[in-house]
Amino acid sequence: MRGKPAAPCCISFCIGVAIGRYLLEGHVPFQATFLVVAFLLVGAAIAALLWQRRPLTTFLLLVGLTLAGALRYLLATAVTHDPRHIVHYAEQEVPVVLRGVAITSPDQRPGRALVTLRAGQVVLPAQTADVRGKVLLSVRTDRCPIRYGDSLQVEGFLRLPRDQRNPGEFDHREYLRARGVYATISCRDMECVHYVEGSHGCWLLAKVVYPLRERITRTIDRSLQGEQASFLKGLLVGERGEIPAELRQAFANTGVVHVLAVSGLHVGFVLLIVSSLCSVLRMPSGVRLAATYAVLVLFVLITEARPPVVRASIMAAVLLGSAALHRRSNVYNSLAVAGLVVLLINPFELFQAGCQLSFAAVVSIVSLHRLVQSSMAPVLMRAVERDSLFGTSVLPLLSVSLAAQLGTLPLTAYYFGRVPIVSLVANLLVVPTVGMIVALGYTTVIASLLSWQVAKLFAASNWLLLTALIRGVEWMGDLPFASVSYVRPRLLHAVAYYGLLVCTPHLREARWRLRTLVFVSLLATAALLGDAFRPRAMLEATVLDVGQGDAIFVRFPNGRCLLLDAGPADSTYDAGRHVVEPFLRYRGVRRLDALVITHPHNDHYGGATHLLRSLPVGEILAPGQTQDEPLYLTLCRVADSLAVPWRVVHAGEELLGFDPAALFVLHPPPQFVRQEGAPPYGLNNTSVVLLLVYGRTRLLLTGDAESEAEQAILRFGPLLRSQVLKVGHHGSRTSSGETFLAEVAPELAVISVGAWNPHGLPSPEALARLAKQGARLWRTDRQGAAVLRSNGQQWHLIRWKRRVPTLGELLSW
Fold first, then answer.
1. How far apart are CA 342 and CA 359, in angstroms?
2. CA–CA distance from 598 to each of 93, 303, 639, 770, 787 (Å)?
3. CA 405, 410, 416: angle at the middle one, nearest 5?
4. Which of 37, 77, 421, 515 measures 20 to 30 Å from 202, CA to CA?
5. At 762, is the secondary structure helix, strand, or coil?
């Protein structure tokens, strides 16, 4: 790449980081070997350069950078090998005392605050140990008084962050690891947080950065209220915790969620403000450059060095430096330098959605916007003059928006399961408005230093813009065609898309037509091989990990989909929103043919309300037992408003439409259910129990059935025999009786139960009875979701967590 030497270097380093993650992670002895080989290759490259062997120099240098990328990733993961690291003291069964220093300001969320601590000491019941590493403190409070540098003593449960427990679920552990955080500690209130004498931390952060950050947030809180204030905090300093989830979803549906992240747009306005001030003060060029660099560093620190800000700031620094030295700069080169710096600092960022989308958008805009504009101009310019406002302003903005969307489309579909349709129009309106809001926000902060009355005038103007923006985005997000659900693209689809995107502009040239033909032929061959590897006529059942609750998804060979329960929901957590819906999007499910509510307990129906609002549901099947809880009544009202049929099922029925599989209702009989009032044997024993039969394989789904229900089910005798049993009532001692287990004779028993649940489930008695029966055990609290597939002959337990894929899996992705 002539004129862009940093680009192949960055690509090689990225390949090395990926090799380190997918092939070498955990292999500590490789680190020393890679270090020696990398130095030898760099030395050989220098020698080849001295001997004027340029191709050999380039090859050796790129191979050396690849090894360096792998080494950098291995070194980043090696921090936990220290026996003093906090990760080795997590997962304690009792509360601990952690002493540490706050190294961030509080991230205030509804009802709780998050603060990152640098751990110093942990006090366990049997020992006190000096530790190291970062810990995320979560404390329930509406206003957190903790400040950067505070020495704290915290009482709470020290845990590892939740990892990816279900296919398609957001991996919170990986997200925190990318920020150097390996453990969490939760406190019920601020009374569990005690201040220790002394303040620690960096002087620049303690005396300049965080006071300035607090000044900005205080100014916003003093001048604005509600969602307008929360939104402006997110735009100016990156505090997005107070932005309502519904508003974030509206921005995502509209395809403008990128404006919520502090990024290049904000860096541009900072540079504009600094440049204007320098011009007014008539600073010399050298002083102006130094001042601009200082402000950029300060801005990066104020926004807590988020990758989009780091990327944009580095690019700006390279471009400004090139201009000061009177050298031509290349955008691709600047972007590659920014990528190298980001990955050298933190190689985990390569696998973060935000970092990928940020770099992909910039590359797309730079490489495609002129082509897009030249292609759109002949069509759109027929109705207006070329030198009109549309031709000079709107058309360039439209081409930039379309170029960014074209370049990020596979990533957007992969991570969010949706493709925004109105984003082209929305970006035309939202991006300029956000620019004015950011400019007014910074102006309000600066004006507040001089006159609060003047600052109020700017804040009032900003309130109008913020309100118009929020209401406009909500309106566009609610449009039925705002976005469409999209099946998560396979690797082959992404390769094909980007390959054709690169080839299309050059198809007028004969050599590019030949290359495109060869490329398409190779993709077609790979697709055929992928079809050969893909299993046919399979039934899939997934017992999801929704915490302390149940949610089981079944996809039948004929393509129909059934969901049995939807997990719990309350004011802070909704399994339907956070677990079940992402899983369904990941699996490409656009409609549920049936939703079964086994019984009216929140841990089984709580997430169903969100699912009804998110995707079409054919019918709801339930035992007919009523419940007066507000959440259950809300579920009934939502189902009625959406005209979703609600059908009562009883023991002895067969649910039709799932051929060639069969689905039988074994419980409850009518005497276990009351239309009004409390049921005679309790709510758990009104659970719908289903038997799924496919060929020679069987799966028994028991809900929360306890001993009374099990005794009633025993009348089906040999029909109960099943290779797989979903254990009743989360493994409580009142379920899984010996007689019942002897009749079912399961080979695999799956327990859906929440980690560290307050009920002590699964009970030792139930576990002992299952062990006596000889059943293999799978617990969602320890192993995550259980994914089962049947070909009609036997069940296969599928490994779905990250690992090095086989050739067949690569082709079928």
1. 11
2. 32, 47, 16, 23, 20
3. 90
4. 77
5. coil
Residue 458 and residue 522 in contact, taking contact as beta carbons nearer than 8 Å: no
Task: Judge whether 250 and 473 are in contact, CB under 8 Å.
Answer: yes
Closest CA to 733 of 686, 700, 684: 684
| Rounded to 5°, angle at Cα 676 from 675 and 682 | 85
Structure token pair of residue 367: 């490489």
Structure tokens given for 291? 């001042």
Kindly provide the b/e burial profile for residues 46-75, where b requires at least 16 CB atoms within 10 angstroms of the residue's own CB.
Answer: eebeeeeeeeebbebbbbbbbbbbbbbbbe
Q: Is pLDDT larger for residue 598 or for residue 353? A: 598
What residues pair up with 199 in beta bridges, in sequence order?
A: 150
Q: Which one of 273-277, 366-370, 652-656 scores highest in mean pLDDT?
A: 652-656
* Mean local confidence (pLDDT), 473-482: 82
User: What is the spatial distance between Cα 322 and Cα 608, in angstroms, rounded to a whole number?
Assistant: 57
Number of alpha carbons in the 13 Å side-chain half-sphere of residue 382: 5
Q: Which of the 8 DSSP states describes residue 510?
A: H
Beta bridge partners of 725: 700, 749
Amino acid at 138: S
Report pLDDT for 393: 64
* Least confident stretch, 87-96, 210-219, 277-286, 457-466: 277-286
Please name the residue ranges forming H helices in 481-549: 491-503, 510-533
CA–CA separation, 122 and 526 (whole Å): 53
Rounded CA Rg of the chain: 29
* Residue 419 pLDDT level (bands cut at 50, 70, 90): confident
Question: Is the preceding peptide bond at 668 cis, omega within 30 degrees of 0?
Answer: yes
Q: Token pair of 180, please?
A: 């150097």
* Both tokens assigned to 351: 């696998």
What is d(CA 4, CA 336) in angstroms, rounded to the nearest whole number? Answer: 9
Helix (H, G, I), strand (E, B) or coil at 778: strand
SS3 at position 656: coil
Please state which of the ranges 23-32, 92-101, 687-696 shows the lowest mean pLDDT. 23-32
- Mean per-residue pLDDT over the chain, rounded: 84
Backbone angles phi, psi at 408, to 5 degrees: -105, 5
Beta bridge partners of 692: 663, 699
Asked whether the predicted pLDDT for residue 35 surpasses 80, the reply is: no
Confidence bin at 808 (pLDDT 50/70/90) = very low
Q: What is the DSSP string of 192-250?
A: GEEEEEEE-S-HHIIIIIHHHHHHHHHHHHHH--HHHHHHHHHHHH---TTS-HHHHHH
Quote the CA–CA distance of 715 and 338 in Å, as a whole number.
Answer: 69
The 10 Å Cβ neighbour count of residue 80 is 13
pLDDT at 810: 42
Furthest C-alpha separation in the chain: 93
Separation of alpha carbons 683 and 235, rounded Å: 48
Contacts of 526 (CB under 8 A, 6+ apart): 492, 811
Give the full edge-to-edge strand order of the sheet including 539-543. 646-648, 620-622, 594-596, 561-564, 552-555, 539-543, 786-790, 795-798
DSSP-assigned beta bridge partners for residue 786: 543
Which pTM does this prediction carry? Answer: 0.84
Q: Could you count the other beta carbons within 10 Å of the beta carbon of residue 674?
A: 14
677: left (phi over 0), alpha (psi -120 to 50) or beta: left
Query: For the segment 696-722, what is each residue's pLDDT rounded down to a tens digit?
Result: 999 999 999 999 999 999 999 999 999
Cβ atoms 360, 407 nearer than 8 A: yes
pLDDT beyond 70 at 27: no
- The length of the chain is 813
SS3 160: coil
Both structure tokens of 415: 């991570």
Residue 398 has φ and ψ, to the nearest 5°, of -65, -40
CA gap 724, 703 in Å, rounded: 14
Residue ranges of the alpha helices (H) in 282-422?
Answer: 285-302, 307-324, 331-345, 353-380, 389, 395-416
